[in-house]
Amino acid sequence: MILQLNHLQGKAAGASQEVIETLYAMLAEGHIEPNEFARLRIQLDWLQYKKNFREVVLVTPDKEPGREDAPFLQMQVDTRQVVPGCLKPAVMRALIRHQPKAGMGPAEENLPLEEFKPFRSSLAWDFNRLYWHRLKEWEVATGQGYEKALPGGQSDANHPDAVADGVADFWTLIRDLDAKKQLPPEIFLMEIGVGTGQRCGLFLDRFHALDTQRGTNYYPKLRVLLGDYSMQTLDRSRAAVQKHIDLCSFVALDALNPIKTLSFLRHKLLHVHLTNVYDNLPNDELLRREGKLFFIETRAFLPMNEVVRIAEKYGLPAEKTRTLVSRLLEGGPDYLGDYDRGMNYWMEIWEAMRLEERLVPIEDVADSVLPPGLDVAKLEEILEEAPSDLRFHLSSGALESFSNTIPLLGPRGYLQVQDIFVTDFNQYRLGFHGPGKLDGSIVNWVNGVLLREVGERAGYDVHFAPFQYRKGSKTSILYTTSRE
Amino acid sequence: MTLPILPTTVVGSYSMPGWLERLKTEYFARRISRHDLDEIHDTAVKADIKDQEVAGLDIITDGEARRDNMIDYFVERLPGVQIDRSSKKFYYDFYDSVVQGKIPMASLGLVPDFKFLLANTDREAKICITGPHCLTKRIRNQHYPDEASLAIDLGRVFNLELKELVKAGAHYIQIDEPYYSGFPEDLPWAVKALNTMVDGVNARIAVHICYGNRYGKPSWEGSYRYLFPTIKEAKVQALTMEFARRGGEDLDLFKEFNPPFALGVGVIDVKSHDVETPDLVAERIRKALEVLPPEKIFILPDCGLFHLPRDVAFAKLKTMVEGTKLVRAELK
Fold this sequence. Notes:
The structure holds two protein chains of two kinds. Chain A is an alpha/beta fold. Chain A has helices at about 15-30, 35-40, 85-100, 125-135, 135-140, 160-180, 200-215, 230-235, 260, 305-315, 320-330, 340-350, 375-385, 395-405, 425-430, 450-455; strands at about 1-5, 40-45, 55-60, 75, 110, 115-120, 185-190, 220-230, 250, 270-275, 285-290, 290-305, 355-360, 390-395, 410-420, 420, 435-440, 440-445, 445, 460-465, 475-480. Chain A has a seven-stranded mixed β-sheet. In chain A, strands 5, 6, 11, 12, 13 and 14 form a six-stranded antiparallel β-sheet that branches. In chain A, strands 1-2-4-3 form a four-stranded mixed β-sheet. Chain A is globular, with a radius of gyration of 24 Å. Chain A starts with a strand and ends with a strand. Chain B is of the alpha/beta class. Chain B has ten helices and ten strands. In chain B, the strands form two sheets. Chain B has a seven-stranded parallel β-sheet. In chain B, helix 7 (about 185-200) links the parallel strand 6 (about 170-175) and strand 7. In chain B, helix 1 (about 20-30) packs antiparallel against helix 2 and helix 2 runs parallel beside helix 10. The radius of gyration of chain B is 19 Å and the shape is globular. The interface of A and B includes residues 181, 456, 457 and 483 of A.
């Protein structure tokens, strides 16, 4: 047995003893074969987020085709969920689900909500989409704004010093272009994922003040695009930019593919900003183990006891849960007739939903599952310098968004993204950051190493600077410079 | 060989396939030999020639598959220019290059590659060479008193090479000077260096001036107005410029300044994967015909096709030829 502690968080360290004792007890009782015990490879506390879609114990199949047994039996234990004295049943449940055997009772039934598939295609992301489309309703139902769920209770995007520095950089660029007689008559800039619109409002206030102070008269030339895929969010953001409304256009767009909506602005934008968008875009995960690359497929499910409990609570037939979930995702909480009941049903299903996973060797995965700008050969090249035995984010959505945004940038234009980035593969040794649940949404750290690689091949150097404006902030600011 | 009216050609490069990118990078990682890479390049060039012929171009190039980018193919051949071979991580990166003494007059050895092209096609062939201004902007100067002096000396070395190419059968030569648009203030000395380069060279010489295509994106924006009237002093027969992506407004500069050049009209946007229709190509050509007579116009893409996927590049060339045929029919 190999016990891997590298992700273990301090407070949960005490539970590691319980894990070892439980497994030895199960070996002694014959619930685990000596052969299985020897092959066990256990990772504790492998996922950063407390709310993380996973059960307390997870056994991940990674059988290679034509091979009876995998060299290791992978088990992940989230020690934060361990209730003292209750680990054994959880281990047994996970083992039975992995490989049912005589004497251990029937496999506990779960209700799969979908087939195994790349995580980015999971219906978990439909829940995420529903949340952002119906954000206001969620906030009313929970009684708190979504920013309250963020660490620190507010978005770093709106920090006045950060905004002021951002404005200064942008104004300097414009002045430089002006001096070289390269300033276009209209100065296009865009924010994608505008949230409340507060950051954009602050940016324009500050820009206006600076422009007036310096007497440069650039402000009237600004053409500001506020983009979001939720019309509700766009409508809400109007109030925050009311003073500058004549310069602003509100564009419903998919953050994964801005160029699709704005192709007429190809090579025209001088600045694009996103805060906390990439971490919320569909993601996939990869694992490299003993030199082989595996794609992690997931399947969303509901524990059967939760299915029964929720169905009884709302007076709905348990056997129709899959249909009801799919209708909820299509039509929102109204679909259940009684709106309040629908809201609560949505929240309880979301709370109960879990993900199970399996590993698929990458040679079985078509290049098409990889995001634009990245193919298997390039990925393997990058991984040559990464530590071995590594689970990491592919950040499919972030890479797709990046690749479909940079063609909008003009020759001197730049992209600025504020988010939670992994900037070195070694950081994955210290923790696996997501997916986690944040209110009704999904949050993932973003693989900055891959963004840097894709950026380089597209003609941009990608830089990361820690967010220095709030002590303890985990966010960084990505910015691009044109590559020679 | 007689060319039709509105002859079609490419700016220089053809699509660089991903597999060749990987093999070139393998070479820099010393995983394949120079000999193998040369064979790979020969095969890729033959494929590029065939695609241009099938697309129906009148004047073709070797597709520039041998070149990592528009700079390094030349700096690694330039006598007196030192390059740091470890400075490349990816084949497309530029070498770090430096000149620390006077550049001696010596051959660059471009003739064999051009002869390879001639041996593999019956079409008219063109060779494209990066100009002295562009190279001056990429080579660190630690010897000459100023950029102009370096450029003039580069012009001298290239002049010798152009004459060798003409002897080898080069009738069409294109000099690439995209950095003019980024550094318009350099134009007076840049044109002098260009004239040094072409002095006494007996061929049809065009200068290609665009707004950059590094990584398939523009490096600068603006108007071609900066070229005039200085460019009129250039001792070349033609300019080739990009009009598809940027629109045809600057065509009027040819009416306003009446330069003594033929014009290679860019009618294919090489920064977009959307394939133009023949009608759109024809429309762009007609717009050029409003300012210049047909005998002074030839047709090409805005810039090299290097960054386009092969199927897109091929389709764009085909549609360019079809669109040109539409206008030729109208001119009859």
